[in-house]
Write a structure and sequence with these properties.
There is one protein chain. The protein is 47% helix and 12% strand. The chain starts with 15 loop residues before the first strand and ends in a 6-residue tail after the last helix. The chain has eight helices and four strands, in the order E-H-E-E-H-H-H-E-H-H-H-H. It has a single domain (7-212), classed as Alpha-Beta Plaits, CATH 3.30.70.1290. A four-stranded antiparallel sheet has the order 2-3-1-4. Helix 1 packs antiparallel against helix 4 (100-121) and helix 5 crosses helix 8. The chain is globular and about 50 Å long. It is an alpha+beta fold and 218 residues long.
Length: 218
């Protein structure tokens, strides 16, 4: 069945998106911490020139990211430093088109890079990811807060842990620490008002969602 249009939003400059995807047949996406680290490294390598990341979470057979596409000026400045560009990059610079095609290509390279390494490591063949990947534009203030909490609380939703703050493979620990991070931590804390309010909102909303069994649209 084809996906509804809302799950296939164009990734355009300055907009925020909830990005997520799962494996085919719901098989494992990660079999080790080495896989998880490599997945995040590949994401950074292929996507960080074009977007900033608010938060993320890696689950056994799927993942979630909340991202913001950078401005056209930032993206073009990045591309202009290279003498040799790929066809999609040239089109973006020369024809003044939106970043949708550029980001589609970058995500494809990211998924392909991880899949090839994963298949080689685990002696596996075939496509790993379900296609196409889902991306929902986060245009409502309430949904932005909801999406952040949902992503961090996802391990509890899937009964991997009793307390989402104890789950290792999410951005939660980086957001509440003082350590250096590539995340848009300041912007996210400013959104909630303070680090204390960020923590309180997560605790309150996640508890409400699970006690009342409210459906969260993702």
């Amino acid at each position: 069945m084809p996906l509804a249009e809302k799950y296939l939003a164009d990734l355009t400059e300055g907009n925020v998106y909830h990005i997520y995807n799962r494996t085919n047949n719901r098989e494992l996406l990660f079999r080790s911490d080495e896989n998880r680290r490599f997945f995040l490294q590949r994401f950074t390598h292929y996507l960080s020139p074009y977007l900033g990341t608010y938060c993320w979470c890696l689950l056994p057979n799927h993942f979630h990211f909340l991202i913001e596409v950078k401005s056209a000026e930032e993206i073009k400045k990045w591309l202009q430093q290279f003498k040799t560009l790929k066809p999609t990059e040239k089109i973006y610079l020369e024809e003044n088109v939106s970043s949708a095609l550029l980001l589609e290509k970058a995500f494809h390279q990211f998924f392909t890079s991880y899949s090839m390494a994963y298949n080689k490591m685990h002696k596996r063949t075939g496509n790993l990811f379900h296609r196409p990947f889902k991306r929902i534009e986060v245009s409502r203030d309430s949904y932005f807060t909801q999406a952040v909490v949902y992503i961090h609380a996802n391990p509890k939703k899937h009964k991997l842990v009793d307390d989402f703050t104890k789950y290792r493979w999410s951005s939660w620990h980086s957001l509440i620490s003082e350590a250096s991070t590539p995340l848009m931590r300041k912007e996210l804390i400013d959104w909630f008002g303070s680090k204390e309010q960020l923590i309180k909102t997560h605790v309150d909303l996640s508890q409400y969602y699970y006690e009342s069994e409210v459906a969260i649209e993702v």
